[in-house]
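Supplementary Methods S3. Input chains for the assembly prediction are listed below.
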Amino acid sequence: MPTNSKLEAFVSQVRRDILRQVHKVNSGHPGGSLGCTEYFSVLFNEILRTNGSFEMDGINEDVFFLSNGHISPVYYSVLARCGYFPVEELNTFRHIDSRLQGHPTTHEGLPGVRIASGSLGQGMSVAIGAALAKTLNKDEHLVYSLHGDGELQEGQNWEAIMFAAAKKVDNLIATIDLNGQQIDGSTDNVLPMGNLKAKFEAFGWHVLEEEHGNDVEAVKNVLETAKAETGKGKPIVILLKTVMGNGVDFMMHTHKWHGVAPNDEQLEIGLAQNPETLGDY
Amino acid sequence: MTKTYTNSGNKDTRSGFGAGLEVLGKQNPNVVALCADLTGSLKMNAFKDNHPERFIQVGIAEANMMGIAAGLTIGGKIPFTGTFANFSTGRVYDQIRQSIAYSGKNVKICASHAGLTLGEDGATHQILEDIGLMKMLPGMTVINTCDFNQTKAATLAIADHKGPVYLRFGRPKVANFTAEDQNFEIGKAVKLQEGNDVSIFATGHLVWEALEAAKILDEKGISAEVINIHTIKPLDEEAILESVKKTGCAVSAEEHNFLGGLGESISRTLALHHPTPQEFVATNDTFGESGTPAQLMEKYGLNANAIVEKAEKAISRK
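Predicted structure tokens for the full assembly:
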């Protein structure tokens, strides 16, 4: 099990991978990717119990679904760094004939991805389905999912949230990336979502709040707490407060880097703030 | 001389689905059924009663149902979703597109009350665009069965087929004339009637009407070939081309808009391989309305008489 310093080193490399992927193709979503780097790094290194080789069915292992598929750069980097596919393949992100499509897909056979996402609001339902399959299979492993906060404006989520509580889907840990930003501005400006904790609780979920979503120790702790709460008749949601663009100072605390790539100079500044630790691809 | 098909008694195709699902429940432990508050209408009660642990009532939330179905395949389940055709397609198109079709998930979308024959509920519930919506999705198999027995056989067959399927059937009781013990072969057209003067390619409820039309045409001295195209995608192009090469003209018949339906798929095949005059028995870019099924099929030109008229027109264009 990596120590926190090893995790920090992993995080630094993933941030570099995100910046370099997006810069090379001058396209992609660095902001949300950077904000979720600690979550992905902790989840894949410390939390997920997976079998060695990737199987679509995910039987007798934990499975993960990314609902806000636009943060594919962090997903791809972490999958590659965890051995799902060669790290060099990050060079092909968003290029023609690549398995690393702009948004994640099963269509090109990329190991680690079990559902296409990109059109928002669909991942919660899929995660619930996978959780129900685990229950039917008497498989004790868990289902994890990640969703953007702006994504909760999609109505399908609330169908799913209602269902999961009603049917006591208690082998699911959903995480909401609470960065408060979406394409057109802050979530409070675009469409204020009110008290999300109260909303989830009113629907019957067990809610965990974590203010420090970019602190690996805090992320680890809240995920462990969530695991301990599974099997108690309620679905679990972690409201994980993160900073969009975290780790690259000029990208932080703004929606402006939601879907914009850094230029050459900006890339150098960003990389200088995040040392190479595991070797660039 | 036309071949005689015996109607063993009118039955609804949705009950064929329910009967097939009941058998599947016993045969295949991986089959899971989902319903969005229409269990009785979809005839899913037997499955629900026999296998409550494998029956998922999602409530009036079709988008969630499609996503859950996609997720259930991850874990080896074979989900069958059940709701009306309108709510199985148009309402949830993007969920099907991304989470099922593009993701290549083994979901069986089972859709009842398709077309005008839903009747009195009117146009909000009478989808006439669903075949088009579904056939445009890469990798989607599209089936429209003609009677109780065939719907039951198709329900069994699609469980063994790996990949997403749209199975379309309906509400009214219609002639049940295909064999009870038939082997349903996805993508394989069924020649019901040999003929030389015109090929009638029919799907769904129009298949029985096509057989009735063939009798009327026979009395007029016209020899019609009737082929049941139960699978619209993949289309049995070989059967279509073999038939038109003999007859020289075609009529397509379906309870669907001519835009996006079976007829257009046949037109493409003919245009590419064997240009042939073709007439369309289909709705004409319109919504439906309230009425009895028979009134609606008459008003919108979807019955044996309409097929006869179009057959004569097709022959005149040779």
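The first strand of chain A starts at residue 63 and ends at 66. Chain A touches chain B at residues 56-59, 63, 65, 105-107, 114-119, 122-134, 136-137, 139, 155-156, 159-160, 162-163, 166-167 (CB under 8 Å).
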